[in-house]
Write a structure and sequence with these properties.
The complex is a heterotrimer.
Chain A lengths: L22 E2 L1 E3 L2 E3 L6 E5 L6 E6 L3 H19 L4 H17 L1 H12 L3 H22 L17 E5 L5 H14 L3 E5 L6 H12 L7 E3 L4 H9 L5 E5 L2 H11 L5 E5 L5 E4 L5 H13 L11 E5 L3 H12 L20 H16 L3 E4 L14 E4 L6 H4 L6 E7 L2 H9 L6 E5 L3 H10 L4 E4 L18 E2 L15
Parallel strand pairs in A: 1-5, 6-7, 6-9, 7-8, 9-10, 11-12, 11-16, 12-15, 14-15, 16-17
Antiparallel strand pairs in A: 2-3, 4-5, 10-18, 13-14
Helix pairs in contact in A: 2-4, 3-4, 4-5, 9-10
Chain B lengths: L28 E5 L5 E6 L3 H20 L2 H17 L1 H10 L4 H21 L3 H5 L1 E2 L6 E9 L2 E5 L6 H12 L3 E5 L6 H10 L9 E4 L3 H10 L5 E3 L8 H8 L5 E3 L13 H4 L2 E9 L3
Parallel strand pairs in B: 5-6, 5-8, 6-7, 8-9
Antiparallel strand pairs in B: 1-2, 3-4, 4-10
Helix pairs in contact in B: 1-8, 2-4, 3-4, 4-6, 8-9
Chain C lengths: L2 H5 L5 H9 L6 H11 L6 H13 L1 E4 L7 H12 L13 E5 L3 H7 L6 E6 L9 H13 L4 E5 L2 H5 L3 H15 L3 E5 L2 H4 L2 H13 L4 E3 L11 H18 L4 E3 L7 H14 L12 E3 L2 H14 L12
Parallel strand pairs in C: 1-2, 1-8, 2-3, 3-4, 4-5, 5-6, 6-7
The chains are: A alpha/beta, B alpha/beta, C alpha/beta.
Chain lengths: 480, 286, 313
Amino acid sequence: MSEHIFEYAPAPESASIVDIRPAYGLFINGEWVDGTDGRSFKSVNPATEEVLAEITEAGPADVDRAVTAARTAFETVWGPMPGRERAKYLFRIARLIQERSRELAVLETIDNGKPIRESRDVDLPLVAAHFFYYAGWADKLPYAGFGPDPRPLGVAGQVIPWNFPLLMLAWKIAPALACGNTVVLKPAETTPLTALAFAEICRQAELPPGVVNIVTGAGETGKALVEHPGVDKVAFTGSTEVGKQIARAVAGTRKRLTLELGGKAANVIFDDAPLDQAVEGVINGIFFNQGHVCCAGSRLLVQETIAEELLERLKARMTTLRVGDPLDKNTDVGAVNSAEQLEKIRTLAQIGEAEGATRWSVPCRLPEQGFWFPPTVFTGVAQSHRIAREEIFGPVLSVLTFRTPAEAVEKANNTPYGLSAGIWTEKGSRILWMAQRMRAGVVWANTFNKFDPAAPFGGYKESGFGREGGRHGLEAYLDV
Amino acid sequence: MSEPTRLAVRKTYKLFIGGAFPRSESGRSYVVHDAKGAFWANASQASRKDARDAVSAARKAFGGWSGRTPYNRGQILYRIAEMLEGRRGQFIEELRTAGAGKAAATAEVDAAIDRWVWYAGWADKLGAVVGSANPVAGPFFNFSTPEPTGVVAVIAPDSPLLGLVSVIAPVIVTGNTCVVVASEPAPLTAITLAEVLATSDLPGGVVNILTGRRAELAPWLAAHMDVNAVDLTGAPADLVPSLEEAAAGNLKRVLRPEGEDWTADPGLGRMTAFVETKTVWHPVGV
Amino acid sequence: MSTETLTDAPGSNAELRAYLHGLPGVDQVGAEERAARLATRSIKTTAKAAAIDLAISMVDLTTLEGADTPGKVRALCAKAMRPDPEDPSVPKVAAVCVYSDLVDVAVRALDGSGIAVASVATAFPAGRAPLEAKLADTRAAVAAGAAEIDMVIDRGAFLSGDYLKVYEEIAAVKQACGDAHLKVILETGELVTYDNVRRASWLAMRAGADFIKTSTGKVSPAATLPVTLVMLEAVRDFRAATGRRVGVKPAGGIRTAKDAIRYLVLVKETAGDDWLTPRRFRIGASSLLNDLLMQRRKLATGVYSGPDYFTLD
């Protein structure tokens, strides 16, 4: 009987669907404008290190222009507009995103390094759904539980990270606009392209000028935005370190603040868990988006009775992960977003080894160009190890064990963070018992890394405050 | 020699059952006149057997429709708004034929489109607004959620488009399916609306529309044991007591509003009238 | 679980029940999500060509109708040996699967071809007959030359918790098979839950199955991706526990090359390359073969083909 070889051939998604301009200005008051001081930076494809475009760095004067435009739009057009009409603009945007979803997915993958399968099947559907969801709230705010006539705050200054560039934009802009605010948004300096494409979508939707303004730049631009006196509301997603700086900066002002920061989530597996799905959950929890996920399940807490068996299954499963070209439709793990992030991951992995934990990385061939880190698991990790405490923000899993539910809770909560947690057991009452005790804003049971515009998301403790998504997500943008 | 004038192709107005457009099994029709009293079209005059078939179609569609995600139902209702917007001119024309002035007809069509948009947004929000996590005294997690009642019979009001949309949309957005008896004097717009529904990814059978005599159809629907609720908005006042009595046969939920203003904020009432509240208890322990 | 426990005959229903219910549960949502994600794998160009030929070589070309005749079976056998008369490079299928009374016809028609004759037995498809009748059915098929027996389990016994009866029937049929390979049909459409599918898989493997098979094709749903995923996990785990490699056969409802390739992806990423052979993976189908041939020709010629260019047998 003949034997056939069946290996996957390359299946690259065509990049020709996107049209990247050589240079981008700032999107202020519905127009593309140059920066005042002529500074710029480059956005790079992290999988190839190829320069994608020259991006304008917005200085304080540009930020001021954007805030002024947002203020005018708020006072003259967007604030007074009936919710029914605002809703229809947001529905238009949702539809335009659906229509252009493949293009946006490819652009996201090129700029960010995430696998096209994820940008296509996760990011973009969620982006459109988020606009769709908040569109529906725009004319229903009196029903949201914040009083009979809740008012918007004014101008929102929003700073978002590079891990889910367009999705984080949606999480910020959709509820802000639905509530009647106008926005100035700063995308991350390594991933500005989809936000700039979104500016075009605002034009296609004929959104009034100044309602959405996009200013590109790095930390200084973000600082200028959150410190601008004309901003009524600051929303930030990113590291806890920067989050604290922002909290200090707005202290003493009347600005409202919501923060969605880092995490070190525990994924707790009991010995009666559905094992195959638990293994998938662990994989999805830490290797989704190269582990660049604030709610990643970066600490695996496994009951000692099944620790060995589970690890064996986990490693076997890890060897089937396909690491490489993010545009290949079969890639599971793509490129690390930047050289800087790669360096941080490497450093913490080295610290893990030096502290005595056992490292195992998937034996896979990594591309020569670009920024790559193989899926990695550390066993024999103790609570005191830095890799058990610090957010690595990469495809690195730390494995710890526990004996009783109480011990699992104690270890899971023993962190300054509190964004998310996972519980795996077939016993319903134990899920709820654990969930009640987890000091985390999102608890997933027998699943992980699930997001929906109807479900609030956000952290306890140093993972930030405020919620995005759901009815609760409106509160951040209403004067309540 | 001048061009001969082109003779218009007229539309046959039929019923809308299970996603198809059948004639009444009875073979009957009745004349509908325009505002000037001239012949406009024949409307199908549905029989009790058509009503029975419509209930079967609605019941068959219920499992699938109520099982869709709320997000998906919202998308479909929004699609209905898009399709209706695309036929805006046609509806304005029909309302004018029925006697409305241009401004009034335009306003009614626009409001009807916006009404679909309003309800589309409720699909994935009503549960968050009327559901609850209940803090019971004991080691239990307890929550309540709204669930669709089932098959709803709707006696539609005479407002031929806005009123009709305002009674259909809140019934189906939560996952119910319905059998609608269109306005008796103004039934044609309902069938044109059915053409919109049929091209909006709405599964066949979710909305079924009958035209005919209310006094003939409503008692059969009110008494039907496989109908779970009845909306009497458009029922003639003299029929209401007997319809309510018939509805008691299987304890149908009955909505009997008075003095509806179709241009006002619709509120939640028409949605909550046709949902059941389900409360779930689950122990909490290791 | 020690190897002895898995090869010893179970002592009682209670013991067997404790053992089967001690297997890890299957979370439905997670299992279906995993299967759906694997279904998005993009198999193109050379990979597609290899997959199509592999799939053809794994087909158990099947006819199981009350209206089957020797003529129908002979036609099917001709197709099995040379699926595309215009292209001798097309591999032959793995087996032809018929009812037991037509085994001799198939054996004669396939003589010397290297294609196995498989026979359904044990009162297929319902399995509602006395054990003696089921064994007689099996022996007759083997005596007529069937190299493979596709038996059905007693779903009624399984669902009522009489696991021992199911076990003993499988073991008895296995014995009646002699050298013939035994495929055990779980009829997953009647077992309904993935927990049941996993338990029935282990029960069948422990009782001696050489293959576990999803469906008769007479019950809907027949084979599905998540059911096959759960069965592939079972054979993978059974091998880890005992060293024995049991095959898997999804059957029913697999009609397109695209479907077939999705199953191969499941095999590759769940049980592994060791199962990517007709010795350990089969696809029970009839109309699938022509679609595989049609897609194969599309790859060769660069233009879409049509059903008129392939034989209907």
